[in-house]
């Protein structure tokens, strides 16, 4: 039982936390404000899950599980957004909350060479200048974002499963008065 608890503690803290911090850094670099806010909540709830597992608190695990379901939905939305599924358009201002920013990987991905317009006159001087085209990328930025969201989906499913199993174990161990009063 101790080994299972240690394994689930590791699964709650290390991989999800590392991947969400990596995503947070690149979202900050790209000024993607909606993902920055959601990533912040993910960091908090992973910490809740860790302490719920460490301190045998089923309520923390329930909070982590509910948030993980929302996190899973968010990442499925991001996959649909970056693949332009339905009415979603990756060129819209939905994720940057109207600032005009885009994914950091659009211009800075491995091998990417952006070409900017020579006549830089913008209607809004506060919006960042986007390149006319980007050539030579090993992977297009939307594919990188989809892969990242897919990894987060897999970690969320694993975390939900682990939290349910561990919470059930905690609740089973908590039944200290199974046989009632004797007398």
From TrEMBL:
List, alphabetically, the GO terms of the cellular component aspect.
plasma membrane
Q: Name one Pfam family in it.
A: NKAIN
Membrane-topology annotation of the record:
Multi-pass membrane protein
Ranked from the top, the taxonomy reads:
Eukaryota, Metazoa, Ecdysozoa, Arthropoda, Hexapoda
InterPro entries associated with the record: Na/K-Atpase_Interacting
Subcellular localization(s) per the UniProt record: Cell membrane
What is this protein identified as? Answer: Sodium/potassium-transporting ATPase subunit beta-1-interacting protein
Task: List all membrane-crossing ranges.
Answer: 30-54, 61-85, 149-171
> Which keywords label this protein?
Cell membrane, Membrane, Transmembrane, Transmembrane helix
In its UniProt entry, the species of origin is given as Anopheles quadriannulatus (Mosquito)
Q: Which family does it belong to?
A: Belongs to the NKAIN family.
Q: Which PANTHER family match?
A: SODIUM_POTASSIUM-TRANSPORTING ATPASE SUBUNIT BETA-1-INTERACTING PROTEIN (PTHR13084:SF6), T-CELL LYMPHOMA BREAKPOINT-ASSOCIATED TARGET 1-RELATED (PTHR13084)
């Amino acid at each position: 039982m101790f080994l299972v608890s240690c394994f689930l503690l590791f699964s709650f803290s290390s991989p999800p936390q590392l991947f969400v911090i990596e995503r947070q850094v690149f979202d900050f670099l790209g000024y993607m404000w909606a993902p920055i806010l959601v990533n912040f909540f993910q960091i908090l709830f992973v910490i809740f899950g860790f302490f719920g597992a460490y301190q045998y608190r089923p309520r923390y695990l329930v909070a982590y599980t509910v948030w993980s379901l929302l996190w899973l939905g968010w990442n499925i939305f991001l996959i649909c957004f970056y693949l332009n599924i339905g009415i979603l358009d990756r060129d819209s201002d939905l994720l940057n909350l109207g600032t005009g920013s885009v994914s950091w990987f659009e211009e800075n991905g491995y091998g990417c060479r952006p070409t900017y317009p020579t006549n830089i006159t913008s209607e809004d001087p506060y919006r960042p200048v986007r390149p006319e085209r980007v050539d030579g990328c090993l992977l297009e930025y939307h594919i990188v974002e989809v892969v990242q969201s897919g990894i987060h989906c897999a970690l969320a499913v694993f975390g939900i499963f682990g939290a349910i199993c561990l919470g059930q174990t905690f609740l089973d161990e908590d039944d200290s008065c199974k046989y009632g009063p004797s007398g």
